[in-house]
Write a structure and sequence with these properties.
Elements (H helix, E strand, L loop, with lengths): L3 E6 L2 E5 L7 H12 L4 E7 L4 E6 L6 H18 L19 H6 L7 H21 L3 H11 L1 H12 L6 H14 L4 H26 L11 E6 L2 E6 L8 E4 L7 E13 L10 E3 L4 E2 L4 E14 L4 H11 L6 H28 L2 H5 L8 H20 L2 E2 L3 H8 L3 E5 L7 H13 L3 E6 L13 E4 L3 H10 L4 E5 L12 E5 L11 E3 L4 H38 L4 H19 L34
Parallel strand pairs: 13-14, 13-16, 14-15, 16-17, 17-18
Antiparallel strand pairs: 1-2, 2-4, 3-4, 5-6, 5-7, 7-11, 8-9, 8-10, 8-11, 12-18
Length: 609
């Protein structure tokens, strides 16, 4: 079969399917077949990365039965649409920014618990006992090399598919050369610590994911709702916006909405920052996953299913949409192009000095693994925390764009909600250096609606766009209508409480229509980017120290292994995995802020001072 499993966890599996990259009709049919299965929750197709991600209900069938049904869908798609094109792999240089996921995971391979941790522990034990027990060189060396087998497989697969060498090749050479030289402890310790980190990471992720989806998977619970004046009995997944339903003690809130009647004591959902029981009254918001303890309330549904806060968090944790980050792409490109120079440096040291240890030391250069660790820790945690704060950032690339905004266009042609709250946020953003433009049908002659903004009429919009493009400004565009009229990327669209939205679209969504939520989102995004840079330094600086120590001071390779893995552990599980992002990054403001000199110098552009 053409499909290949490249990553799988409980409830989620990612397939690499090269054909979907060149055959859109086949991809569409495959998605339809997979979505037709009762066990499947969601299917996400990424043609650029040639991957298909399937989320399913793990409690309905065992894993073998789930994979059998998924494979049947692939077989049906192949029978219905036979392969029309010869298979060919896209050259590595063709990998675009949006395709970074393919570069990271396309060649990944599932490792068993024995390969990941069992065999490395055996190799570590054998290497420690090799001297006291006088074990044969061949036995110890074979055991150590066997523990590094996943590295060797990845290198072989990359080379067989025509991809350029990456850091796996350097790691493999480092372990082989030390093993051949009789230094067994360092490579055995490296495979053990790397496997231990991967095991801890997967365990934490499974525990985190399992906290969320239970409410959304309760598809067979029947609810009585009032819809357009009629009472209906429906299943949970059939809830729609503007439905009305009563919640009794013991009920778990099935959707996001607002209380319109009643009084109740509520236990917050898992994802809410506070776990304290509170009293909800008419006008208060309730989110899916909360539980009614006492009393009863009538809920007006705003969002249901996977567009609730609970659903968005669950989707983020399952799909991990973090591979479109520009920083990650730059790190990947740097690492890819640094492999051959590193090999050349190692060879040059060997030829000039003849010393074995210093020549091998450069093979342990770190090329930005702090970025990779931050993708699934800092970036993903920030996306989850942003949803808790009322801002949906669908990908790490969107978060990155939001953090780097230099200008904001407020499209008020369809009206401007909450102008007082908007005024406060604008003053804060201007103190952070952002230029704010207010787009209207006509410039107000008297009484500026928002102080500190540059007013622009709709007919002058092309000139504004040309100006911002010429200045290479990173621009966000917030609109309030049913559709977003934001220009094409690289401008970042920001939607104000849309009734529905596509989870795949790279659009910032203000879930509750709250100006302060946009400020919190910018603060979270900036903090996440700052933490990522800190992780890079936290890992790179110790790595450089021990690598140069090995090259010039004869530092033992075990010191290198322990230092690198300790720094990676701290960055990933302590500094990177925290969700306590600071939301107080926006400066406080006074009631009035003097208007700065306006940046537009075009005399043809309508500007109100």
């Amino acid at each position: 079969m053409e499909q290949q499993i490249v990553h799988a966890t409980t409830g989620r599996v990612r397939f690499r399917v090269p054909r979907v990259q060149r055959d859109p009709a086949y991809g569409k049919l495959l998605v339809q077949l997979l979505e037709s299965l009762a066990i499947v929750e969601q299917v996400r197709l990424n043609p650029q990365a040639a991957t298909v991600v399937v989320q399913y209900q793990p409690h309905l069938l065992d894993e073998a039965a789930v994979y059998e049904r998924l494979n049947q869908c692939f077989e049906q798609a192949m029978v219905a649409m036979p392969q029309p094109f010869p298979e060919s792999a896209a050259p590595a240089d063709a990998i675009a920014l949006e395709d970074y996921e393919a570069q990271v995971e396309a060649d990944a391979r599932l490792e068993t618990d024995w390969e990941r941790l069992g065999l490395p522990l055996v190799a570590l034990g054998v290497s420690l006992l090799s001297a006291p027990l006088e074990l044969p060189f061949a036995v110890v060396g074979a055991t150590v090399l066997a523990s590094a087998w996943p590295w060797f497989q990845r290198v072989g697969q990359q080379m067989s598919q025509g991809h350029p060498p990456n850091v796996d090749l350097l790691d493999s050479l480092w372990m082989v050369l030390h093993t051949v030289n009789g230094q067994f402890l360092a490579p055995a310790l490296k495979t053990t610590l790397a496997g231990a980190r991967a095991d801890v990471r997967d365990r934490q992720r499974r525990q985190q994911v399992q906290r969320y989806p239970s409410v959304l998977m309760a598809h067979y619970e029947h609810l009585t709702v009032e819809r357009q004046g009629h009472f209906l009995t429906i299943e949970t997944q059939e809830l729609q916006a503007e439905d009305l339903l009563w919640l009794q003690p013991g009920d778990v809130v099935p959707a996001d909405g607002r209380v319109v009647a009643g009084l109740a004591e509520v236990e917050p959902a898992h994802f809410e920052p506070s776990r304290q029981v509170w009293i909800c009254r008419p006008g208060d918001a309730l989110y899916a996953g909360c539980q009614i303890l006492t009393g009863q309330v009538q809920l007006w549904v705003i969002r249901s299913g996977w567009q609730t806060r609970l659903g968005l968090i669950t989707d983020l944790l399952h799909t991990e949409p973090v591979y479109d980050s520009a920083l990650a792409h730059q790190q990947g490109e740097f690492a890819r192009h640094a492999v051959l120079p590193t090999l050349a440096l190692s060879s040059a040291l060997w030829l000039t000095t003849g010393a074995y240890g210093p020549a091998i030391a450069p093979l342990q250069f770190d090329f930005g693994s702090g970025v990779q660790l931050s993708l699934r820790t800092v970036m993903l945690s920030a996306q989850v925390f942003a949803v808790q704060q009322g801002v949906y950032l669908p990908t790490a690339g969107t978060l990155e764009q939001l953090a780097q905004l230099e200008s904001l266009v407020i499209d008020a042609r369809a009206g401007l909600p909450q102008p007082q709250e908007a005024q406060i946020l604008i003053q804060q953003l201007r103190q952070l250096g952002l230029d704010i433009y207010l787009l209207q049908d006509q410039v107000q002659d008297q009484g500026r609606p928002l102080e500190g903004t540059t007013e622009v009429t709709g007919d002058r919009l092309p000139e504004l766009q040309a100006y911002l493009v010429g200045k290479r400004r990173r621009v966000g565009w917030i609109s309030f209508g049913e559709t977003c009229s934001c220009p094409e990327p690289p401008w970042l669209p920001i939607r104000w409480r849309p009734p529905t939205f596509d989870p795949n679209a790279k659009v910032v969504v203000l879930l509750d229509g709250d100006w302060s939520a946009l400020g919190r989102g910018i603060a979270i995004a900036r903090d996440a980017l700052k933490r990522t840079y800190q992780n890079v330094a936290l890992i790179a600086l110790p790595n450089l120290a021990v690598t140069f120590g090995g090259m010039f001071l004869g530092l033992h390779p075990v010191v290198n292994v322990v230092t690198n893995n300790a720094a990676a552990f701290i960055a990933e599980f302590w500094h990177g995995n925290s969700t306590q992002f600071r939301t107080a990054l926006l400066p406080s403001v006074s009631t009035t802020v003097p208007l700065r000199s306006l940046p537009l110098d075009s005399p043809q552009l309508a500007v109100a001072s």
